[in-house]
From TrEMBL:
Organism field: Caballeronia humi
Pfam families to which the protein is assigned, alphabetical: BKACE (PF05853)
Designated name of the protein: PF05853 family protein
InterPro entries (UniProt xref): Aldolase_TIM (IPR013785), BKACE (IPR008567)
Keywords recorded for this protein, A-Z: Metal-binding, Transferase, Zinc
GO molecular function list: 3-keto-5-aminohexanoate cleavage activity; metal ion binding
Cofactor requirements of the protein: Zn(2+)
Length: 312
């Protein structure tokens, strides 16, 4: 949107499914830790909490509605943040597994990846000297031969089903082609503005973290959708996180941080919590004279149905 007095939405992706516990001792994976870190991130200024679930025994990504219910309702009760439930799950889950909890929760927002891709962190495996749990090594190194499936039919079925729930989406776009995929579904009449586009940079298999790529994504989205019809947000993976999201805000966008996207707070220093990253980007933005959107303001900007209209 083009309002020069706009407020910036901070999203926080609390745990994700790509990073494994061996990458950081601070990565939350028990329901209690996910809950406490999410609440702290909301208190620090995150208007949107992007949530995945993990097996509390070993941190393995899980689609289990029972585990989601151990932390999502508590987060919803203790904050007014927008709860954004993944439909991506992990590359190892079937589509029905990925949708198991979102179908029950009918949240205000879900994430939705806009195309199949070779999403991979496998080069990181060579840098890990010892693994905390026995599943992690095969999981990380196995990404080299995994396809993250999001076919046109998969996406169409999700959009059609969740339209009935009144759920809106964080459209995760890892490449320029994903923007064109989104435009296709808009042309099919499955979506109406405002759209929330999360541009992802720095994941192997998608666009690199070169700053020039941000201009390509922004200008392409302007051509396809018209700037008045969408909200742009930026996710920078790993060491690129803070510099890219700051640049995204300067270019008129919103920002996403969190331990799903980077386990570091600065060069060589592990982030001890999601809130630490939220506080850092909030400080940077406020020093640049941006104002931070509250959850209520974010709901109005994105046209969400409200927390009272969910089954969390």
């Amino acid at each position: 949107m083009s309002n020069i007095n706009r407020r910036v939405i901070i999203s926080c992706a609390v745990t994700g499914s790509a990073h494994v516990p061996s990458m950081s001792e601070y990565l939350p994976f028990t329901p209690a830790d996910i809950k406490s870190q999410a609440i702290e991130a909301a208190e620090a200024g995150a208007a949107i909490l992007h949530l995945h679930a993990r097996n509390p025994e070993d941190g393995r990504p899980t689609p289990s509605p029972e585990i989601y219910r151990e932390f999502v309702p508590a987060i919803a009760n203790e904050t007014d943040a927008i709860i954004n439930i993944t439909t991506g799950g992990s590359t190892r889950m079937t589509l029905d597994e990925r949708l198991a909890y979102p179908r029950l929760a009918k949240p205000e927002m879900c994430s939705l990846n806009m195309g199949s891709m070779n999403f991979s962190l496998h080069p990181i495996g060579a840098k890990i000297a010892s693994w905390r749990y026995d599943w992690e090594k095969d999981y990380v190194e196995g990404m080299e031969d995994m396809i993250f499936r999001n076919t046109f039919k998969d996406i169409k079925n999700i959009l059609t089903e969740f339209r009935d729930y009144g759920t809106k989406f964080e459209f995760e776009c890892y490449d320029v082609g994903h923007l064109y995929n989104l435009a296709y579904f808009i042309d099919q009449g499955l979506l109406k503005p405002p759209f929330f586009i999360q541009s992802v940079f720095g994941i192997l298999g998608g666009l690199g973290a070169d700053p020039e790529n941000m201009s390509v994504m922004r200008s392409t989205a302007d051509r396809l959708f018209g700037r008045e019809n969408y909200h742009f947000s930026v996710l920078g993976a790993g060491r690129h996180q803070m510099s890219l999201v700051t640049m995204g805000a300067i270019m008129g966008g919103n920002v996403r941080v969190g331990l799903e996207d980077s386990v570091y707070i600065s060069k060589g220093v592990k982030s001890q919590s999601n809130a630490e990253q939220v506080r850092k980007i909030r400080r940077i933005l406020e020093e640049l004279s941006f104002e931070i959107a509250s959850p209520a303001e974010a709901r109005a900007m994105l046209g969400l149905k409200g927390a009272d209209n969910t089954s969390l």
